[in-house]
Design brief:
Elements: E1 17-18, H1 21-31, H2 34-53, H3 59-66, H4 70-98, H5 100-118, H6 123-151, H7 156-184, H8 189-214, E2 222-223, H9 239-268, H10 273-298, H11 305-324, H12 330-354, H13 359-377, H14 379-391, H15 395-415
Helix pairs in contact: 1-8, 2-6, 2-7, 2-8, 3-4, 4-5, 4-6, 4-9, 4-13, 4-14, 5-6, 5-8, 6-7, 7-8, 7-10, 9-10, 9-12, 9-13, 9-14, 9-15, 10-12, 11-12, 11-15, 14-15
Transmembrane segments: 29-46, 66-91, 103-120, 126-148, 160-181, 193-213, 240-262, 274-294, 306-325, 331-354, 366-388, 394-416
Main location: membrane
InterPro entries: MFS (IPR011701), MFS_Cyanate_Porter (IPR052524), MFS_dom (IPR020846), MFS_trans_sf (IPR036259)
Length: 421
Amino acid sequence: MPRPDAEQLLLDAEVDVRPSPQASAARRALLAHPVLLLVGIVLASLNMRAALAGVSPLVGEISGDFGLSATATSLVTSVPVLFLGAGAAVAPWLARRFGAEQVLCGALVLLAAGILLRVAPSTYALYGGGVLVGSAIALLNVLMPGLIKRDFPDRAAAMTSVYTGSMIAGATLAAAASVPLEHAFGGGWQASLAFWSLLALVAAVAWVPQVLLARGRTGHEVRATGTGTGTGRSVWRSALAWQVTLFMGLQSLWTYVLIAWLPTIFTDHGMSRSTAGVIFAFNNLIQVAGAFLVPLLAGRMRSQRLLVVLVTGLVAAGYAGLLAAPVAGAWLWSGLLGIGQGGAVGLALTLIVLRSGDAATASRLSGMSQTVGYLLAAVGPLAAGAVHQATGGWTVPIVLVLAVCAAALGVGLLAARDRRV
């Protein structure tokens, strides 16, 4: 079987829907305004991690205000990750039912509402807002690749770089600005977090023209038949699909532990909050290098085993550095972790495509890996917080994440073989 083309198999939430003439006309009208679409993609992508990264530098203040234990504090970051998985399961159905533009715009409004709910003076609102935030970001995660494939089929790789770069830029901006915004707003973490709802609302407004131009195509689509619908074999029964899924989940787990706790690890060892926030922002920024380079290399290899060893080795080295000298080597460890994190997520997403024989299989494998993977990843911040609370330090949590790195290496080497689901 010939190797799949990564751009041809770029994940599409509407893969089994064929547009009617009315839908095609609406889509042509939309593409007649590519600047509007490009601005909308960039603004939406900026929101795909900002609401998560902006919490971490403030987690100490949030915990203090509500009197939360370390375990309860970890739920502030774990709950959104949990619903990244739950939201991924329903995103394809929503896209087929209502259209990608409408769902994406609605997700941005939902994200803004979730951010604002989190700053209400109630722990129920804090966690409930996290549910909305995670669900909204899940919809964005699933819809964006398919939208790019649909509307920019000849520039899919370039547009994928634009959206992934914007996503990381949003996380970097939120991580770096959270503490300064807190100071600018008079020392209130609530105002600092609420600020990011404005970014989501601006993005939602930018998508209104696309929604209006595409209005009317929903309900005119018909089910596609014939080629491109896949073999019908359930990916849930495939060992290779589970290997890809577990690699996605384990690399997400070590990433969300860092998103939740990296600034706290630094401040617990004596670093100032502002410096910890800047280094955390650097960690997010440097992920661009790995996220850009590793998928390019992966697409040129029949087996990606060397890349699995590289990215897991970088992450393990960074975590080991946090164990040995967290403050003295903070910039180095953050850099190693960032390149490894970016490379790992890029490799995990690329493996979904490369291990699939057709677009329908790629779509199903994406749904499985994101649903199960993010549910697994949600365990990371919660477990790290609970173990930290039980042991009074970060040594045991970091050792456990190193064990996760070893497990990711094992399943990653299996997933990187030149096989097809």
